[in-house]
Amino acid sequence: MTSTLAGEHLERASRWIYDGVWGVLVRWFRVPKGPPVVPCLPGDELESFRPSAGFLRYLKLQYWLTLGVIGAPLAIGCIIALVLAPRVMIPLAPLILALMAVPAVAAYLAIHLRYDTTWYVMTGRSLRIRRGIWILHETTITFENVQNVEVNQGPLQRWFGIADVKIDTAGGGSPQPGAHGAAAGAGHRGLIEGVHNAPHIRDLILSRLRHSKSAGLGDEPHPAASALVGWSPAQVALLREIRDAARSLATHAAA
User: Fold this and answer.
1) What pLDDT, on a 0 to 100 scale, did the predictor assign at position 172?
2) How far is CA 17 from CA 11, 23, 26, 202, in A?
3) Shortest CA distance to 143 belongs to which of 44, 249, 37, 250?
4) What's the angle, vertex CA 15, arms to CA 56 and CA 102, rounded to 5?
5) CA distance 184 to 193
């Protein structure tokens, strides 16, 4: 009962502090509150989404488990020290509590910041992933370059009804072992983590991949696409981005 009340108090205090910290960070570092802007053609499909609420609960469970593993021995050590040397420990008790609480609150804030700054934007031709506050990491994956899409779900993720979608793209080399988050998405792998509809997202990416590869650089299959034989996926992606940018500029100029 006591531990539950302590957890509730820490949750409320951390949330109150977080609201203030989040507001300061948004003003100081100009952190965008909304999803990244992705240029697209009129009528093109555009979908913005974030990790599901279950992902935040999943991160919090990991937080509490870690806090328990680290905090329990520290608390036991403090109690033993208090019994053995009460004259020394009683004056130091406020400092010790502060040293234990500050890292716990900081870790809680980091979880919310990670959740609130993660965005995924999918168009008919590409996927953009954004994370970060101090340094914004934006990764754009063109479906033309996608080689493999898979869904990963661990036991705890199943409990919270979430899963990760991993996207491997063409190119030399492979992601470094143990790479996660922005590091994993910066090279040749994109990571959509903590979503409740991972199979749907995987199927959607695969369907747009098939459409992108069948359509070449145009919107529809065209005989001229045969002239692209011998072009690398990176060159095709670059030409497509130039084409889309030119159309976007023409559309804005006409408007």
Assistant:
1) 44
2) 10, 10, 14, 37
3) 44
4) 100
5) 11
Q: Which has the higher per-residue pLDDT, 191 or 240?
A: 191
Question: Looking at residue 153, what is its pLDDT?
Answer: 94
H/E segment holding residue 249: helix 233-254
CATH of domain 119-254: 2.30.29
Q: Is the separation of the CB atoms in 22 and 126 below 8 Å?
A: no
For the CA atoms of 99, 101, 102, 105, the dihedral, rounded to the nearest 10 degrees, stands at 160
Would you say the pTM of this structure is higher than 0.85? Answer: no
Cβ atoms 216, 222 nearer than 8 A: yes
Q: Cα–Cα distance between 43 and 45 in angstroms, integer?
A: 6
- Identify the pLDDT of residue 182: 42
